[in-house]
Write a structure and sequence with these properties.
This protein has 198 residues and is mainly α. It has one domain (17-184): Helix Hairpins. It has six helices and no strands. It is elongated, with a radius of gyration of 21 Å.
């Protein structure tokens, strides 16, 4: 699929080169800011078991609330966007990143509570890495859950991953389709006023 096919809506006017570049740059900036927020959220997780051990669970709860609010906001933005397909791709990446961050924080909390819960003690980065390998079903085997609690949470993530992948792609693609249809309907009502050569 070409860039025009990725960004432009069906039946609409072809975006100018400048509009395409600006839309892609803005999407990239939002992705960087979104992942910076995730890194900030993960940095709140302590490195050693102490009184701050409740922090990962509180941050995970806070992350879940933000995840729900952010997901709903992104879906509304997709349907109203001039570039719904680009916005849908951006939303998929950021929503998946937040989803993984929530599980990563739970894994850190389990590891802080019991350093033998996994084959190695987890910090913010290694827990995110583990959550991503579970989502991707790669199964490198370098980090594995050992205790019942760690295995239970991993099983919950595996089950939710199946639902997450299917449902999220369906929901986001439906929102993108609505945005494309909305744009096409709006442009059919408005005659093309651009000069014939432009």
């Amino acid at each position: 699929m070409s860039i025009d096919g990725l960004i432009a809506a069906r039946g609409g006017q072809k975006p100018t080169r400048r509009e395409l570049v600006v839309a892609i740059l803005v999407a990239l900036v939002r992705l960087v800011l979104g992942f910076a927020f995730i890194v900030l959220m993960m940095s709140l997780v302590p490195d050693s078991p102490d009184i701050r051990m409740a922090a990962p669970l509180l941050v995970a709860t806070f992350g879940t609330v933000i995840y729900i609010i952010f997901s709903r906001r992104q879906l509304r933005r997709i349907t109203k966007s001039r570039f719904p397909t680009l916005m849908a791709a951006e939303a998929l990446v950021l929503i998946a990143g937040l989803f993984l961050a929530v599980f990563a924080m739970v894994y850190v909390a389990i590891s802080l509570d019991n350093p033998r819960a996994f084959t190695e003690p987890l910090d913010a980065f290694t827990s995110y890495y583990f959550a991503l390998t579970v989502l991707a079903t790669v199964g490198f085997g370098d980090i594995t859950p050992v205790t019942t609690a760690a295995r239970s949470v991993t099983m919950v993530q595996m089950a939710l991953d199946l639902v997450f992948i299917a449902a999220l792609i369906r929901i986001v693609s439906t929102a993108a389709r609505k945005g494309i249809d909305r744009r096409a309907a709006g442009q059919q009502e408005q005659p093309d006023t651009r000069p014939a050569g432009g």
